[in-house]
Each structure stands twice: as C-alpha cells, then as structure tokens.
C-alpha cells in the first residue's frame, strides 16, 4: 500500500472480489484467513458494505454479494457500449451486416450495443436488450467456447437459423477483459457466413477488448 491509497477501501474491494468468486458465500473466519486480518476488521468491513447493500449475510452467517452490486452493474453497460461503438460501426460498414456487442447476464446472452450498416438495401433488425440462451446463437456460443478454453476453435463461432429463420451469425469472444464475459458479432440474412467475415469479427473483438482493457 502506498501513501496515496486507502487500506480500508482496498480491503473492502478485496472482500467483494472474494465473495463474487464463490457461489456459496464465505464466513467471517474464511474471509479473515483469506485477507490476512483479524475477525474484528472483517466484521467492520461487512457491516459497512451491508449498509450500502453491497453485501448480505444469510441465516447461517455466510456473507454473499448483495443486490446493491446490481445497481452499480447497470451503470457499466453505458460505459462498455461507448467504448465498443467505434469498432462496431467499422465492422457493420465493412461487412454490410448488423454488428453487436453481447455480454453474459446470468445464464443468458444480452445484446448491449448494436450498430446497423448504413449502405445496405436490407439487413437484420437486432435491438439492444435482446436476450437469448448462451447455448444458442453465435454470440453465446463464442462466449462458451472461450469459457471452455477450446484450443481447436478458429477463434469465432458460426451459426445459422438458431435465433431467427434465414439468419446466420458469426461472433468472437472478448479476450483479456477483467470482469467481463462477452463477444462481438454480426448477424446477416444468408445461408452461410462469407469466409472473410469470421476473421474480421475476430479483429473487431480484439479492438473492443483493447478498448475495455
């Protein structure tokens, strides 16, 4: 810790990160051991975080992430969307298809930014806020492939007709962005995605990842 940083704030943020990494919560003793501080310090940290609804404790005393984190998370989407828009615009214009940034939201894929091409006669209407299961559609499949760390994948996922009849999709996962699981992709009306689109989507995903890193 340097003179310019707050030790208490650092510990509080570490508590949130530890709780976010577990599904079953942590006890005061477990947090004390992981943080390397005494139980009194942990009690104070949890009490403060509870006041802001960032942490909750169940009947058994295990601490978990609170619903207040969701309120903070809602403010993240506009920032992510703004950072991704330049790459999405370039992708949509280059490929002539609707480009989108999709993030994981629980067990679903959520489109948080969408850019449609300006020069095409027709394209797929795809709206921000659209949700679908992670195991359907190129956007979700790309995320799952990255999560599984499949070495044989070409770096992108291709699908046809899984979310909309007659529409094909290509998507590549965001790589190296801490705390965010997502993908960049395109959706187009065709029987199969042109060969050049997959690598172009990978490039766009890399641009967005760099912007968010």
TrEMBL record:
SMART domains xrefs: HTH_ICLR (SM00346)
The keyword Transcription regulation belongs to this UniProt entry's keyword annotation: yes
Biological process (GO), any one: negative regulation of DNA-templated transcription
Pfam families in the cross-refs: HTH_IclR (PF09339), IclR_C (PF01614)
All residue ranges annotated as the IclR-ED domain in the record: 68-213
Keywords: DNA-binding, Transcription, Transcription regulation
Single GO MF descriptor: DNA binding
CDD domains in the cross-refs: HTH_ARSR
Protein origin, superkingdom: Bacteria
Coiled-coil residue spans: none
Domain HTH iclR-type: 6-67
Keyword Transcription appears in the UniProt entry: yes
InterPro entries the UniProt entry points to: ArsR-like_HTH (IPR011991), GAF-like_dom_sf (IPR029016), HTH_MetabolicPath_Reg (IPR050707), Tscrpt_reg_IclR_C (IPR014757), Tscrpt_reg_IclR_N (IPR005471), WH-like_DNA-bd_sf (IPR036388), WH_DNA-bd_sf (IPR036390)
PANTHER family listed in its UniProt record: HELIX-TURN-HELIX TRANSCRIPTIONAL REGULATOR, ICLR FAMILY, HTH-TYPE TRANSCRIPTIONAL REPRESSOR ALLR
Name used for this protein in its record: IclR family transcriptional regulator
Organism expressing this protein natively: Streptomyces malaysiensis
